[in-house]
């Protein structure tokens, strides 16, 4: 378990930072806990606008920098990302938390919810996937990204990949923010994330999930896509499903207000 003595900030202040054994989180607001997990090319700031809006709606949000991302320490060796999320929730004594995962973060959230449903109040999957191990080709392509990052460097890597993450209708500032997040990736964190994705296929987990679930996807997502999101929603018992107009794969950054509104309505409907 993570030691509580590693908590290094006043968590009552919106926008404060806490650190748990090298894992950094942005904390906002007060109320029921919400844990947000970014995609493989992002960091805590990728979820910042959404977290800000949720905190204004009466929730206490925690946006993590996954190991090797943002202000978190680089991992040394394999990382059990879902297990780490559950350890953080237990250490903070949050009680059942709402989990929000975008893309890779959604795979982490799915696995965490399957491992410890008692720790999860609800599951929100945004532009997510079952993982790259659904096929050998997909797993190989995911692992090949690491070599591409090494070859190009983060800035050129972002120049090549980031434009596909946003809708054609995204404004320049949104596209720049998405590119900036990807240009900040570090090899240690990205490698650990890619390894997890290449080994993950949640197909058999989805029907057994025991928590209320909501699947969201941008209508212009060309990375994981609407069809994959439909598979998630149709595989999870009683899952809600929504397509976000005018958004791409980075929907949480492009349309945070629309997504926040939809998520809060979903939570209000929980018994």
From TrEMBL:
The keyword Disulfide bond does not apply. It holds the Pfam family Abhydrolase_1. One of its GO terms (molecular function) is hydrolase activity. Residues 33-255 form the AB hydrolase-1 domain. InterPro entries: AB_hydrolase_1, AB_hydrolase_sf. Keywords: Hydrolase. It comes from the Bacteria. This is Alpha/beta hydrolase. It comes from Paenarthrobacter aromaticivorans. The lineage of its organism: Bacteria, Bacillati, Actinomycetota, Actinomycetes, Micrococcales.
